[in-house]
Amino acid sequence: MSDDNLAVTIHILDKEFRIACPEEEHDALLASAHFLDNKMKEIRDSGVVGQDRIAIMAALNLTHELLSQKSGREKYVKSMGTRIQSLQEKIEVALTRNKQLEL
What is the pLDDT along the chain (103 residues), one digit of tens a residue? Predict the structure, then answer.
């Protein structure tokens, strides 16, 4: 462990893990561990048995959520790009008409 890293103890499904992380990431690691612990407990409480299966289900669920959000952001960005292009075209038309009126 380098001098810049802290040893952080996290708890997931009632098991303790010590993780090395940069000091500035300490709070984010604890929040992530808490979030993961809650997700895994929800999956366990729904009837899934076995820590490996619970971990895989949690990983799949979180990955699905992440990819869905990424896809939504990409659609939003594309939509905004189209709207901006449309506005630019309208501005160009207005500027062209304004120049013609000035002549």
Answer: 556 899 999 999 999 999 999 999 999 999 999 999 999 999 999 999 999 999 999 999 999 999 998 888 888 888 888 889 888 988 989 888 888 887 7
pTM of the model: 0.66
Q: Supply angle C-alpha 78, 80, 84, rounded to 5.
A: 120
**What Rg value do the Cα atoms of the chain yield, rounded?**
25
- CA triplet 32, 34, 37: central angle to 5 degrees? 105
12: β partners: 15
Cβ atoms within 10 Å of 58's Cβ, excluding its own: 23
Which residue segments constitute the domains of the chain, with CATH numbers given? 5-102 (3.30.160.880)
Q: Taking each helix axis from N to C terminus, what angle separates 26-45 and 51-102, rounded to the nearest 10 degrees?
A: 120
Q: Are 36 and 21 in contact (CB under 8 A)?
A: no
